[in-house]
Structure formats: structure tokens, C-alpha cells
Amino acid sequence: MMTLDQLKDRDIGKIGTPERDRYEFDLQMELLGGMIKSVRKDRKLTQEELGKLIGVQKSQISKLERNTKNVTIETILKVFRALKANVKFSVEMNEGEFKVA
Q: 96 is in which domain, residue-wise?
């Protein structure tokens, strides 16, 4: 019997390897898209209405909710501002931590 972390280490790579970092990044981006969709629905907005709030087409909101990998932080921030959601980003760097809020 193995834990999930042990399976990830074996099948994807240990924490800190490029493969594992890519996997964790992709997972976080997928979760972010889900959060955007959830908050949009909580605010009772359609994709089209959210798109109008930030100046993009409905199709771009749909893509954002399904796959946030090819989107800029600026766009993500615009979306969450339009949804009136508090957003805090934390970026780790070798010399310390840099926060964008």
C-alpha cells in the first residue's frame, strides 16, 4: 500500500524535479479555473456577462474556466476584480518571498 505522495514520487517525480513542478503547476491552474467558474456562478453571472465586465468574449471566459495555463496574471486579476473576490498571490523566489496582493 502506498500513499498518494509516494505514488506521485514514483510516477511523476520527486518534489523539486521539473516533471513534478510541471504537474503541480498544471493542477493548480486547473483548480484556479474551477474557482473562477464557481465564483462566477455564485455571483449569478453568465460567461457572457463576466466577459463584458472585463472586455473579452464569452469564449475567452469559457477557455479560462477550462484551462488557465495560457492566460496572464493580469487577466486573472481582472476576472477576480470583476467578481469582487479578494485575491492574494504568493511567488516564492530563491532570495525570499514576493507577494502580489
A: 17-100
Q: Report the CATH number that the domain containing residue 22 is assigned in CATH.
A: 1.10.260.40
pTM, to two decimals: 0.69
- 69 and 26 in contact (C-beta within 8 Å)? yes
Greatest Cα pair distance, the chain, in angstroms, is: 51
Contact 79, 72 (CB under 8 A): no
Residues contacting 8, CB < 8 A, separation 6+: 20, 23
Can you count the helices (H) and strands (E) in the chain?
A: 5, 2
CA distance 81 to 87: 8
3-state secondary structure of 89: strand
Q: How would you write the pLDDT of the chain (101 residues) with one tens digit per residue? A: 999 999 999 999 998 899 988 888 888 888 888 889 999 999 999 999 999 999 999 988 998 898 766 778 888 889 988 999 887 766 665 555 544 44
